[in-house]
Design goal:
The protein is mostly helical. Helices cover 54% and strands 5% of the residues. A two-stranded antiparallel ribbon has the order 1-4. A two-stranded antiparallel ribbon has the order 2-3. Helix 5 packs across helix 7 and helix 6 crosses helix 7. The structure holds zinc ion. Zinc ion binds next to loops. The site of zinc ion (ZN) has 7 residues, from loops.
Length: 154
């Protein structure tokens, strides 16, 4: 390997997800249209460093929903390495979230249920599994976000 190749391999660019800050804020989330999918926090794309190699950017879309800090480090690595299983899990996750949002849309706009009723609908089969009130409240807030987003004509 010659000097030039080495130089290019070391060259890192500002992370396109967090714009080099190392943290994703609401502004980044809005820019990438992930309001219903992410919360602010450490950037999973650059792992909080603010820099990525150009190879990362060509390997994985910056707005990949699945790649968040909730992923275990091994799974993050598999995803960035283009592992088929990890990519499949990422696609499945994306579909699951999309379906969930569609269900909420349907229950509210077609079924006429409010956020509290929709949350009950999801909590019903698990009422004995001891899910906390906090979790239910979080779900209600999420449902309200989905509804508001739809009203804005997303
Ligand atoms: Zn970043």
């Amino acid at each position: 390997m010659n000097f030039i190749t080495k130089l290019f391999q070391k060259q890192k660019i500002d992370c396109p997800r967090c714009l080099g800050k190392g943290n994703v804020d609401w502004e980044d989330i809005r820019r990438l249209r992930k309001e219903l999918r992410w919360a602010p926090g450490q950037c999973a794309y650059c792992n909080g460093t603010g820099k990525v190699s150009p190879g990362t950017v060509s390997a994985l879309n910056v707005d990949n929903t699945y790649l968040t800090v909730d992923l275990p480090p091994e799974e993050r690595k598999r995803l960035l390495d283009g592992d088929k299983g990890a990519i499949q899990r990422a696609n499945q996750y994306e579909t699951q979230v999309d379906d969930f949002i569609k269900q909420i849309d349907y229950l509210h706009f077609v079924g006429g249920l409010d956020s509290g009723k929709i949350a009950e609908f999801y909590f019903l089969p698990e009422s004995e599994s001891g899910k906390s009130q906090t979790e239910k409240q979080e779900l209600i807030e999420y449902i309200e976000k989905v509804i508001v987003n739809r009203n804005k004509g997303r």
